[in-house]
Amino acid sequence: MGRFVSDNGSTLKPELVINIQPQASGNTRAALPVSTLDWSTSNTRGQFIPVHGLDFLIGVSSLLIQQTVELDDLTSKIESENRYIVRVPHGEALYIASETSPKSMRCLCGPGRPFVMHLHDNTRQEALVLHRRLAAASCCFPCRLQEMKVITPPGDYVGRVQQQCSWMPLYKVRDIHDDVLFVIEGPAALTRSALMLTEFKVISLQDR
């Protein structure tokens, strides 16, 4: 066995010598193991390291979006920045969503205000950024309906969601090439209630 000698001539212990060079990694996400469930059962699917924030959606067929409300939200005259928890039904949370918008826009424009929504995953890293423009229209006057752009870090454009002129909630999901991938259909206004769970269906073009 050879000896390891330092610059001043002293002998180094083998366990103090670094003989493996650090390797560059193309993965910019923190390597944090995340416990992921099989969404159809309560059995553990196993441990994996998500390379991308969207990897948390692998195998997910439905999502439950819950808005978190604080006491200040109920007593204030000006709507606060919205916060949501995105989870699988009867399962763990996948994302925490938080809105960023000027107070003046929330006061003057209400639900039609422009905002930026940041979604952080279970590794506490940003997975998605949603940019919604100012929506100053309704189904009766479709001059500027809702539109939201979807961005993934570090700033890659993924696609957009466009509201359609309809008497019921109807949206088209477009990819980076502006091709329609899915249609999102919501319930009619007469069947919606703030106290009830509202269901939106994501339908592919082949199934319409």
Question: How would you describe this protein?
Answer:
This protein is mainly β and 208 residues long. Among the domains are: 55-131, no CATH class; 168-174 and 181-207, no CATH class. It contains two helices and 14 strands, in the order βββββαββαβββββββ. Strands 5-6-7-8-9-10-11-12-13-14 form a ten-stranded antiparallel beta sheet, with no helix packed on it. Strands 1-2 form a two-stranded antiparallel sheet. Strand 1 (4-5) and strand 2 (11-12) form a beta hairpin. It is globular and about 45 Å long. It starts with a strand and ends with a strand.
Write the layout of secondary structure elements.
Blueprint (H helix, E strand, L loop, with lengths): L3 E2 L5 E2 L21 E4 L6 E5 L15 E4 L3 H5 L7 E5 L5 E8 L2 H6 L6 E6 L5 E7 L14 E6 L3 E8 L6 E5 L5 E6 L15 E4 L4
Antiparallel strand pairs: 1-2, 3-4, 5-6, 6-7, 7-8, 8-9, 9-10, 10-11, 11-12, 12-13, 13-14
Alpha-beta content class: mainly beta
> Mean pLDDT across all residues, rounded?
79
| Unreliably modeled segments | 35-45
Discrete helix count: 2
Shape: globular
Helicity level: under 10%
The share of residues in extended strands comes to 25-35%
* Adjacency order of strands in the biggest sheet: 5-6-7-8-9-10-11-12-13-14
Total strand count, please? 14
Main sheet record: 10 strands, antiparallel
